[in-house]
Amino acid sequence: MTDAPDPGPALDAFGVTRVTGLHRLIRGHINASWELDGDGPLGSRRYLLQRLNPLVFPDGPAVHRNILTVTQHLRRAAEHEGVVDVDRRVLRLARLPGGAPAWLAPDGAWWRLLRFIEHTRTVTEVTSPADAESVGRAFGTLHRWLAGCDGSTVTETLPGFHDSAARLARLEQAVREDRHDRVAQVGEAIRDARERRGFAEVVPALAATGALPRRVVHNDAKAGNVLLDASTGAPLAVIDLDTVMPGTLLSDVGDLIRSLATRAPEDERGLDQITVERPLVEALARGFLAECGGILVAAEREQFIFAGLLLTWEQGVRFLTDYLEGDRYYAVQRPGHNRDRAIAQFRLLQGLEAERPALEAIVHHILAEHPR
Length: 372
Ligand code: GN1
Ligand code: MG
Prior knowledge:
By secondary structure, this protein is an alpha+beta fold. 45% of the residues lie in helices and 13% in strands.
């Protein structure tokens, strides 16, 4: 990512006037974001301005077409259910004077402007079962609303995004090449990744028999991608829709478990802090399934907890690969950051493996309350 992209030209393109505040937000590993106060095209006073990272998302127009299609679908679904505060529950993209939802800067990066949703907080590290339940509810509602979304209207903007076999193959290549002389420092993490190579076969096998439906899913369903009401903690909107694509529900379930099963952050260095807490997973499953339990088919029910193991492993593989490739994909705040992230993921994975039978029993009970 360019270090300090200038938001000025994008503001002009979107017709933003009377800017009274503009500050860069430190969030996300990939895109650059600003909170903006000014007069803009949606008649609102506050916006979120974002520059999509072109190295990660080569097809900016398709990304924004997807976001537009999906937010319009979500809005209709919410209205159909009689939701009153739709503007707090679904993101809204501003349009350029010609109607396009994103602006192409001369350097090849796409910029978009979103209405800011006021009085919210996000949960990057969960601190209570109540928050875990709210995050689960937000994603459960998203999936209930997305269930009727025609997958053919949404482009697969990042093919193979959750192809974990391909992710592992890329790790193996990075290990072979060892361009940055880092393999020696992560021997144990590489072993952790390799020992579970069988994980990569589960989802493709279920998809091949048709047991696992292809749905429109979020693909980055971590806790931090949900807005909760700042006062009540009630679930509002799911944000960061860049990776909305056809895929499997298990990817989202897995990322929810990955990000909510422990209070420790994704890059925790104190490995003893990374403990799996059953009440957090239980709360997340309760919230999620209360909203969309009825849509889950047998394979999605059976693999619910395994999805958490799979996505945690895949994320560990991805961080580890980026570490070996020289930190080209994920922004890092310190040397060894991707290494620490990878090691933390594998520690969390061990916790999930140890807790798997107990967690499966918990989810089994909750699922019984939500027959298809
Ligand atoms: C990336 O940038 P951010 O935080 O939205 C990544 C996800 C990872 C996540 C790990 C497009 O998301 O897949 O799960 O980091 N997004 C992309 O925190 O690769
Ligand atoms: Mg994301």
